[in-house]
Amino acid sequence: xxxxxxxxxxxxxxxxxxxxxxxxxxxxxxxxxxxxxxxxxxxxxxxxxxxxxxxxxxxxxxxxxxxxxxxxxxxxxxxxxxxxxxxxxxxxxxxxxxxxxxxxxxxxxxxxxxxxxxxxxxxxxxxxxxxxxxxxxxxxxxxxxxxxxxxxxxxxxxxxxxxxxxxxxxxxxxxxxxxxxxxxxxxxxxxxxxxxxxxxxxxxxxxxxxxxxxxxxxxxxxxxxxxxxxxxxxxxxxxxxxxxxxxxxxxxxxxxxxxxxxxxxxxxxxxxxxxxxxxxxxxxxxxxxxxxxxxxxxxxxxxxxxxxxxxxxxxxxxxxxxxxxxxxxxxxxxxxxxxxxxxxxxxxxxxxxxxxxxxxxxxx
Length: 364
Ligand code: DAH
Known about the structure:
BirA Bifunctional Protein, domain 2, 2 domains
């Protein structure tokens, strides 16, 4: 074996036994780097006679090529092995049981929101959203609550000091009704939406918290009347409380954004010493309980959103979600909802695996 062939086979052996990419790089530098052994040999070609060069040239170049190829192959193999190792380490066996029992629970408010979405989806409603930081126009003016209207004072609004780019007064929305405006301005009728979300008023006692939850409902179509409203609410309330004998009472009322407006009461009765929604409200200790506001969308509101009220009519309703949860699941103090007390959540929370479905019974 000539010196060159011996050199090459030495390097090939080193490459074969290199432990890692760094060792391989070290070999490359020693053999093929600027001052590497094979590179130095290549430089000697210039000083050779043409005859010498003809025999030595192919041998040295051949050695260079062999070593370079061996390094490249070994490097690729190492990188492959590394990747496979990583993939094997990161593999998750989805068939294994969960390592520990889940600790968290679903808050009753989130549970009720899921139930609402489920019930209304069945009636052809989709879920709409709007921002919690709203502007004065969408929260009030467009809903037919002008600046001087007493309803503004009743809302105990949290205002921001800053105005937005258009000079609009910004505020924390006091109800979910501005989502009506957003939806009518963004979507072509027919519209069927519910909009659950957070709302804010500067108010606090056992039944009021500065942040609370509402769900808004809006239907815009042709030929909509109070009958549609009543049927929809009745169907919703019966599905929600999981009883077919829940009675509804519509009382004339006033909201600036609906005309006519109605407050809706549900009938309750007493069963086994407990007050329940449903049954005969005229029985002993039975009665009516207000749960939501509603009405036919005011022509002015439809107009404010750029729609023609001679073509499009609709109904709307707004309902406190926290109160729905309290009525259905039997809590008495609203403030506990937002204390973040784990014992309360353990008691009233729902399993994350318990997805509400109508077929399984909403609260099943
Ligand atoms: N926005 C009203 C409130 O917060 C509730 C309400 C009443 C909403 C009547 C409606 C409605 O959409 O039609 O008190």
